[in-house]
Every structure is written in C-alpha cells, then in structure tokens.
Specification:
single chain; mainly alpha; two-stranded antiparallel ribbon; 21 helices; 2 strands; disordered C terminus
Length: 501
C-alpha cells in the first residue's frame, strides 16, 4: 500500500533505485526532515527525532531567571508593614506592589505571545532577563523615603519581565523534551518560579528587620536590592551566551509536525480565535484562573493574615509562606512525574483541584486557633495541592489545544489567573478589613468549589498524546515492512488546527 502511494505521488522520483533509497536512509538530516514530502491522501512521512543533553541546561537556566523574577513579586508584600512605614504609604498601596505583576500581564500577554511565535524562545529569554535586570537596578536607586514612585517603576519593569516568563515552561518542554518527559520538564520550569516565591517569603523578613531607625532600615533594604540586582545581572549574561532557540532535530514527531507548518500558513489571530472556540480549553481557562487567583490572593495577603492573629511574627509569616511554596514545589514535581507515567491528565487535575479546596477549608478553619505549628501544617497542605496544580494546568492545556502554540495557550491561562488574582486580592483584602480573616478565606473556598465542579465538566481530549501514539504506531509498522524511512502516518487530520471544540 505504501509503495503504491509513493508511485502515485508525482513529487517522488519514479526512477529512484534501491541504492539511492538506502543512501537516503543513512543521510537523513534536519534539512531533509523539514523538506520531507507529504504523501497522498493526507499521509505524512515520519521524521528523524533526537534528544540532546543540552535540554537540561536550557530548562535549568530558565528556572533560575524565573526564580529571580518571582522572588521580587512577593518581596514587598511579605514585609508590607515595614515598607508601609519606610515609604509612608498605606496597606492597599503596598498590595499593588504585588498586584502590578498581575495587572501588567493582562494587556501585554498577547503581543508577547505573538512575538514568541514570530521570533522564538531566545528573543523572549533575552528580553525577559534584560527587563528583570533593569528593574532590579532601578530599585537599588529607590532606597529613599521620598522615592516610592521609583521603586514602583522598578517593580513595574520586573512585572513586565514576568510576561515573558510565566507561560514559557510548557513551550520549552515541548520544544526540547521527549514525549515521556515533557510533564517533568514543565514541572522543573514551574519549580524555578515557585522556588523564587519561596525565597521571597523567607529572605526579606531576615534581611530587613522591623527597626525604627529609618537610616538603618534603608541600609537593610539596600542590601536586599543589591543582592537581587547582582543575581539578575549574572543571569542576563548567562542567557546571552548559553540560551539556545531550539535543538537542531525535534524531540518528538508531534514537534516535528509543528515545525513543518510553513510560517505563511500560520495566523496568530486565527490561532487565538480557534482556542477561544475550544470548549474544554475555555473551561480550563476559568478553572485555572480561579485556582491560581486564590493562590495569588493568599500569597499577597499572608503577612496581614498572620500578623492579625500572631502580632510581631513577621519572620514566621515568611516561613509559613516558604512552607506553602516548598510543599507546592514537591507537589509540582510529583504531579509532573505522575503525568509522564500515567497520562491521566483530567483525573489528576480534578483530584488535585479538589484537594486544594479541602486544604483551603482546613487552613481557614485553623488559622485562628492560636498555634503557629498548626498553621505551618495546614498551610503546607494547602500549598502542596494549590501550587502543585500549576504544571497540571499548563500540560493539560497543551494536550487540549495541540498543535496550537504552547505559549499562546499558557498565556491565556495566566491571563485568567492574573484577572482573578487582582479581583480576589482586592475583595479578600476588603473582606478581611471588614469581617476578619475567616470570612476572607471562606470567600476563596466558595470559588475553589466552583472551580472543582467546572473541572469535572472538562472533556479529556488528549490531542498531543494521540498524535505521538499514531506516529509511533506508523514507525513500528514501517520497521516491520523493512522500510522505516518511507513509513507513513495518518496524523494530518489529528494535527490540523481544530476549527471547533
């Protein structure tokens, strides 16, 4: 059957000898793979794939500069009372030092994902680290009581850098990693972001103690800003010399097919519209935003909640935040490895979402008991599931939307998270001021319950897995027929951008 199709295709050389064919098989390279002919009736030739050791360096470097950026998201909020005193501003103003990360993301995510599709990962990495580095040095220049506007400008630069970072883990995993390790790689990318938040909870209360002497306080703040700037500068230099766009050969058949789509046939606007017509993905956008928005609200307001029940415990508030994120990092890695082993995307996502709701209920009920060790345990449980959900959402989105750009799907998820994060942070803050922390946390529990119910309605349409399975089956069939290079696969219909959900 394969031989007949090849003869019927006028693009193939009908005079090809067996020796020529054998020589083709031995000399397949990246350019040949890219130009490989499509056979008749939607059949497509399999392509050579390869995994490079460099992939681990790429994902780790990304994790480190993501860490540097996410550290700065929470460095003001976790010692909000200290910065309120130093800059002589109110609590809501300091809350905006965290919420600016969320607000900036919403209008800029679409031009950034367009730039990602047009220019690739390396350009995105360079812009991200350059903006992050610039923001840290602006903050260094802002350590004076009348320069709050300057420190806010520095935070804005860092928040803009985050737009170039937050949705990249799934893109890097797909471009560099094999089908059996993409979820683990995505988890490592998310791991860096979460580790940065963890350090952001832990380090500022240690470096910036709550002292009354403003000159001494300025000195401590300056030390923190200089350390941050030094790390950001080093990471920018490493990205310039180390970060690579993509491997020479694709890691999977699915990625090879995505590469083969001519640029002139790709429309970013059409891709976004297709995603917005994908009903399972729309459900995921909403549920992801509800879950991660709750996490953003808890992280931003944690200092206020802890100090309300345990006055003078700024350092322990930071340690509780650290516990939340460290437990979440463990959850992220476990969930990533579990997905690679089982491919049970919907079941795992639904189970972790439900446990996030349970963790939030337990945390809300025990916060006011007067025992800090209980708060550490309940907060850690909450973090394990709520933060562990992050890579699940990314990877489930890629499965539901393949072969659309991973950066676009991740960007829409994060845009939803930022919108809900701003809404939840403002509303919970107002509720805490008016009715106390318990009412504020119950407010979040209600929306986590809604998200859990909606997750149950998401149809598990694993398009990327189906494409890889079909490619693998076709390759095995070709090997059995003794002509591996000429084997064909029926995946073009599966991989064509879906016109409807």
């Amino acid at each position: 059957m394969i031989e007949k199709q090849a003869l019927e295709d006028p693009k193939l050389n009908l005079e090809e000898t067996k020796e020529d064919r054998a020589r083709q098989e031995e000399t397949v390279d990246a350019s040949l793979c890219a130009d490989e002919p499509k056979l008749k009736d939607g059949h497509e030739a399999t392509r050579t794939t390869r995994l490079y050791r460099r992939r681990w360096m790429i994902v780790l470097l990304f994790s480190f500069y993501s860490l540097s950026n996410s550290f700065q998201w929470i460095q003001y909020g976790i010692i909000s009372n200290i910065f309120m005193k130093f800059y002589n501003v109110n609590a809501f103003t300091i809350d905006w030092m965290s919420m600016i990360y969320m607000l900036t993301y919403i209008p800029f995510i679409f031009p950034v994902t367009w730039l990602l599709d047009k220019r690739g990962l390396r350009v995105i990495a360079l812009v991200a680290t350059a903006l992050n580095c610039a923001g840290t040095w602006i903050k260094v220049a802002s350590v004076r009581r009348d320069l709050f506007a300057v420190t806010f400008l520095g935070q804005f630069c860092c928040s803009l850098a985050q737009v170039f970072i937050l949705g990249m883990p799934s893109r890097i995993a797909s471009v560099w990693f094999g089908s059996e390790e993409v979820s683990t790689a995505c988890s490592i990318g998310v791991f860096g972001n979460q580790l940065g938040i963890a350090i952001g909870f832990l380090v500022p209360p240690i470096l910036v103690p709550n002292v009354d002497d403003m000159d001494e306080l300025a000195h401590h703040i300056s030390i923190m800003f200089y350390i941050t700037a030094g790390v950001a500068t080093l990471l920018f230099i490493l990205v310039v010399f180390v970060f690579q766009e993509r491997p020479e050969l694709p890691p999977t058949q699915a990625q090879a097919t995505a590469r083969s789509i001519p640029p002139e046939q790709y429309s970013y606007t059409a891709s976004v519209l297709r995603l917005l017509r994908n009903r399972p993905f729309i459900f995921l956008i909403i549920t992801y935003g509800l879950n991660v928005g709750c996490f953003y609200a808890v992280g931003t307001l944690l200092n206020r909640m802890i100090i309300d029940h345990y006055p003078g415990e700024e350092v322990n508030a930071g340690r509780i935040g650290l516990t939340i994120v460290i437990a979440g990092m463990v959850g992220s890695l476990i969930c990533g490895i579990w997905l690679d082993k089982t491919k049970t995307y919907k079941q795992t996502t639904l189970g972790v979402y439900f446990m996030s709701l349970v963790g939030m209920i337990i945390y809300a009920a025990t916060l006011s008991l007067g025992h800090l060790w209980v708060v550490f345990i309940t907060a850690g449980t909450l973090g394990f599931f709520m933060t562990g959900y992050l890579p699940l959402g990314f990877e489930f989105a890629v499965e539901l939307t393949y072969p659309e750009s991973e950066g676009t799907s991740s960007g829409l998820l994060n845009c939803s998270a930022q919108v809900f994060g701003i809404i939840f942070t403002i509303c919970q803050g107002k509720i805490i001021d008016a009715f106390g922390t318990l009412a504020g946390n119950i407010f979040l529990c209600v929306f986590l319950l809604i998200g859990t119910i909606l997750t149950g309605f998401i149809k598990s349409d694993l398009r990327r897995q189906r494409a890889n399975l079909l490619a693998r089956a076709a390759e095995e069939e070709g090997q059995m027929s003794g002509r591996d290079y000429g084997s064909t696969i029926l995946i073009s219909q599966q991989q064509a951008p879906p016109s409807q959900a």
